Amino acid sequence: MLDRRAFLSALAALGFSRALPACSQPRARFPSDPFKLGVASGYPTPEGIVLWTRLVADPLQPDGGLGPATIPVRWEIARDERFASIAASGAADASPEWAHSVHVDVRGLEPDRWYWYRFTAGDAQSAPARTRTAPAANAPVDRLKFAVASCQQFEQGWYGAYRHIVADSPDLIAFLGDYIYESSWGKDHVRKHDRANEAMTLDDYRSRHAHYKSDADLQAAHAACPWILTWDDHEVVNDYADDRPIDGGMPKEQFLARRAAAYRAYYEHMPLPAGMRPDGPRMRIYTQLGWGALARFFVLDDRQYRSYQACPQPGRRGAGSVDVEVCTRIFAETRSMLGRAQERWLEGALGDSGAGWNVLAQQTRIAQFDELPGAGRRAWTDSWDGYPAARKRLLDFIAKRRVANPVAIGGDVHSFNVAELKRDFDDPSSPVVGAEFVGTSITSQGWPQERFDPLLPDNPHMKLLDSRYRGYVRMELTPKALRADLRAMETVQTRDAACRTLATFLVEDGKPGPQRV
Fold it and tell me: What CATH number is associated with residue 357?
């Protein structure tokens, strides 16, 4: 703990005085740009938006190199990029308790329009960034453009996909998990992570997030439009489920302390509303957002509340590939992917939705995928395949309530997946109740395509599965149809690589199956 003299010295180094009221404090002078991690916005509503930044002097220091000083920050949001017409402004404190991060819930804005925003701290000002509000509730909307991204292992490639996302000028980016990786893995690393140790403590997770956030292409994507986000396992540790890590030797109390550190660092580095601020190892991130009468997003959390994975390998917890005739435990009705409270919330929200398109934004593949060619079936227990009763409850509800145009989007599997969602995947005559689009990774390495090809005949509801490319999904919604372009990077070995459309699918209004065009 710093003594009083050291504390006052830290304040003085930044130009602040404890003896003076805030209005009388001298203007802080930063030795370098404190906005090295960029700015971001998220969770648009018809009247507001969340703005985020984090002040740092040295991104790799756990405290950002700023010590224990609380730093006042001004924010502005304008109707024009020259900031001639200010729509709202105010002040916030960047406190060391929250790693000098700032979350501003701006309200009182006009619906369905673009804005520009910036932050000022002392003698430093952030670069201006762009964001927007959602259309008014139930307002007619002609078009929504958004991108789907996930899984961005830093060492395994450049984030060039974001450069192409920015060029697409989306209204929104949906990020679906594995924003960071708690440890390093894979081969043929393209760039070095300055802190390669596995993240375990709050200091570790803060440094990991800051290192990822330092990427210029990622910062540009955050500055281009608002984001909505959910996490997956690697924001904490691989394959964790509820309060159980994959490592069978870690006591529950120790893991929950680790999870609390990871959740806190996640909040500190994301444009999340104040209502998502963590409480120790608990943090509610599932929510819904409307886009006029056109669409409604249901952002889900399939990590924090799920049942433990079934039939783990001896000496381990976590995921595995199991023979479903041997591991009958996966079919138990009590097993849940979302937790029963979130299940009930989702059913209520879906049942009340009057949107033309209903988008389930969640972490992984929902559709069944048989991993055993020929007779029999093997299932990967970390995906929805490990929770078939929960999946059936969800798809049965969608079918029975006739939810309009349900579309699931996901990540996790580092490959493009396009599938029909069916109430019974083993029955060829079972009707299609929804469409699913799983995006490949931004950089994270995938399994060889040769591993999947022999399995495709056993999964006829899968209309495409391609693990050869890194990239994203570009989506466009209109009242009549959804268009999904699978955008494949030429490579992630170089920063300026080209990107092409691997395939395009349409889902027509009232016709749930994806059709390749």
Answer: 3.60.21.70
